[in-house]
């Protein structure tokens, strides 16, 4: 029973994290929009780098990128909350195992956000790693690691 509670609490912790991320992106919209704008425009990467042809200067496309990130975060949030509630309320091991599927989906969506959107697309395609100001790779890796650890715990056998 304690193992199930730990798993439910950790998934709820990730759900809370994503709730705060979505809340911040909506209530401090412009600060976070500026992050996306600068990464996509590549305006703080190394001068004269040969990857500048990748830069996206269009405000409409930048805004679309930002809203897609918010939607991606919101999807992870909803799936993690749904999974956590299912884990907390499962009366037996069989229903707990069934509820794990939703939590696994939420954690996977979150992992893909950090890996694909931030580390892959932002970090490598738009060369975010070159920016001294608009580099979110450390934060993305930290969240990828945290969510990955929670996913591994969730995937571990129900009881030792």
| DSSP summary, beta strand count | 0
Shape: elongated
- Fraction of residues in H or I helices: over 70%
Write down the secondary-structure element order: HHHHH
**Helix segment tally:** 5
Ends: how far apart? Answer: 11 Å
Number of domains: 1
The portion of residues forming beta strands comes to: under 5%
pLDDT under 50 segments (min length 5)? none
Mean of residue pLDDT? 95
The structural class is: mainly alpha
Any idea what the radius of gyration is? 18 Å
Strand count, sense and barrel status of the largest sheet are: none
How would you portray this structure in words?
The chain has one domain. It is built from five helices and no strands. It has 160 residues and is mostly helical. It is elongated and about 60 Å long. Helix 1 crosses helix 2 (29-41), helix 1 (2-27) runs antiparallel to helix 3 (59-89) and helix 3 runs antiparallel to helix 4. The mean pLDDT is 95. The longest helix has 33 residues, at 93-125. It has helices at 2-27, 29-41, 59-89, 93-125, 137-155.
Q: What labels describe this entry?
A:
mainly alpha, 76% helix, 0% strand, single chain, 160 residues
Q: Strands, helices and their partners?
A:
Layout: H1 2-27, H2 29-41, H3 59-89, H4 93-125, H5 137-155
Helix pairs in contact: 1-2, 1-3, 1-5, 2-3, 3-4, 4-5
Provide a concise account of the structure shown.
The chain is mostly helical. The chain has one domain.
């Amino acid at each position: 029973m304690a193992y199930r509670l730990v798993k439910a609490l950790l998934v709820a912790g990730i759900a809370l994290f994503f709730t705060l991320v979505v809340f911040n992106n909506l209530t401090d919209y412009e600060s976070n929009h500026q992050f996306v704008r600068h990464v996509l425009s590549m305006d703080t990467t190394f001068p004269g780098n040969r990857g500048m042809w990748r830069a996206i200067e269009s405000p409409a496309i930048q805004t679309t990128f930002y809203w897609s990130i918010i939607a991606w975060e919101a999807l992870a949030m909803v799936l993690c909350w749904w999974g956590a509630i299912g884990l907390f309320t499962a009366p037996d091991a069989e229903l707990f195992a069934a509820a794990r599927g939703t939590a696994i989906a939420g954690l996977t969506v979150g992992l893909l956000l950090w890996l694909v959107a931030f580390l892959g697309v932002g970090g490598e395609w738009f060369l975010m790693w070159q920016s001294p100001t608009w580099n979110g790779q450390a934060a993305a890796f930290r969240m990828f690691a945290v969510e990955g650890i929670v996913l591994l715990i969730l995937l571990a056998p129900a009881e030792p």
